[in-house]
Amino acid sequence: MIHTVCYYVFSPTGGTKKAGEIFCRSIAANVKTVDLGGHDQKAENPEGDLAVMAVPVFGGRVPNIAAERLKKLDGKGMKTVTLVVYGNRAYEDALLELNQTAKEQGFQVIASAALIAQHSIVPEVGEGRPDADDQKEIMDFAQKVLNKIQADQEGKIEVPGNYPYKDAMNAPAAPISLPSCNQCGKCAEVCPTEAISIKDGDVTTETEKCILCMACTAACPKHVRILPPPVQEMMEQKLGALKTVHKENKFFL
Question: What pTM was computed for the model?
Answer without folding.
Answer: 0.96
